[in-house]
């Protein structure tokens, strides 16, 4: 049993925001315009609206210009793609995100491919995914980028470690597996999914376990090696009888798993705050043309 070190994403995210804010202040002092981040959202999904509002607030906190393009669910795919054309051609927009999910009548893969890779601060465009795979400079997907940053800023040893990633989504699991295997992280990575045999045994062998499976409390104490680093990507609202009517939890059964860990992220307050900070970091890189010179 261990007394785990909490990986406090709120504290690390705030530190990075202060660094960005300082750099933006220097840009403004030299007479330059601030970086400009845009969010495009369709419909009235509560979680999506909340996320975009938080992104807008935090963009303004670091001195960015922040804009939101909001459309009704009835918008046609053609109209939506025309909006992306406008953003692609606007020289004062440095980066933008398309908030997912989109309505069923809009082809998500077509939309992602329509974003200018130079402004793709979500890191979802095939060009950025391919560049990441080839270890070329690219915009990294915000959540995996945030996790790598947490690990680096906490000084967690990764070289030669066994890393197990639970979940193979295009947004988190698959890019996470790629990044953890790359030079600098140097892990031996196992990417698990619903068809993985002997899943508990595979997880039990992990020095670093990254849970992005999308199921509350999926990771239990009998799946975790003593002294493992556990990163919980999941976030779920579970209804209860409290004043709020719900509580927030992750993919990991935190109370039972934490005593077996050396490091662990809480939910909320772990990975979540790092996702928006990674978007801000990508936007600053886009502004400075660091990826695509």
Strand proportion: 15-25%
How are helices and strands ordered from N to C? EHEHEHEHHHEHEHEEEEHEH
Instruction: State the name of the first-level CATH class of the largest domain.
Output: Alpha Beta
In the CATH hierarchy, the architecture of the largest domain is 3-Layer(aba) Sandwich
- What is the first-to-last residue Cα distance? 50 Å
Largest sheet: 6 strands, parallel
Topology-level CATH name of the largest domain? Rossmann fold
Q: Going across the biggest sheet, name each strand in turn.
A: 1-11-8-7-5-6
Give the overall pLDDT as a whole number: 95
Total beta-strand segments: 11
CATH superfamily membership of the largest domain: NAD(P)-binding Rossmann-like Domain
Structural class: alpha/beta
Number of domains: 2
Give the helix proportion (percent range).
25-40%
- From the alpha-carbon coordinates, what is the Rg to the nearest angstrom? 19 Å
Which of globular, elongated, flat, extended, rod-shaped describes the shape? globular
Low-confidence stretches: none
How many helices? The count is 10
């Amino acid at each position: 049993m261990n007394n785990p070190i909490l990986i406090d994403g709120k504290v690390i995210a705030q530190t990075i925001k202060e660094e960005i804010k300082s750099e933006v202040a220097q840009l403004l002092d030299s007479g330059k315009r601030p970086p400009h981040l845009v969010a495009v959202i369709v419909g009235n999904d509560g979680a999506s609206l909340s996320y975009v509002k938080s992104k807008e607030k935090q963009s303004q906190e670091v001195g960015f210009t922040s804009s939101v393009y909001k459309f009704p669910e009835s918008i046609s795919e053609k109209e939506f793609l025309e909006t992306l054309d406008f953003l692609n051609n606007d020289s004062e927009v440095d980066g933008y995100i398309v908030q997912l999910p989109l309505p069923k009548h809009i082809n998500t893969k077509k939309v992602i491919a329509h974003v200018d890779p130079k402004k793709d601060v979500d890191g979802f465009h095939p060009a950025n995914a391919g560049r990441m795979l080839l270890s070329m400079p690219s915009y990294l997907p915000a959540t995996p980028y945030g996790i790598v940053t947490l690990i680096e800023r906490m000084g967690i040893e990764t070289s030669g470690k066994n890393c197990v990633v639970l979940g193979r989504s295009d947004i988190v699991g698959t890019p996470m597996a790629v990044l953890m295997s790359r030079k600098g992280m140097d892990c031996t990575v196992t990417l698990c999914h619903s068809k993985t045999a002997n899943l508990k045994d595979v997880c039990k062998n992990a020095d670093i376990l990254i849970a992005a499976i999308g199921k509350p409390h999926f990771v239990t104490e009998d799946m975790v090696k003593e002294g493992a680093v556990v990163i919980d990507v999941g976030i779920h609202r579970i209804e209860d009888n409290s004043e709020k009517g719900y509580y927030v939890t992750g993919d990991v059964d935190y109370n039972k798993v934490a005593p077996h860990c050396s490091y662990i992220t809480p939910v909320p307050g772990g990975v979540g705050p790092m996702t928006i900070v990674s978007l801000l970091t990508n936007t600053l890189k886009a502004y400075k043309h660091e990826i695509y010179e």
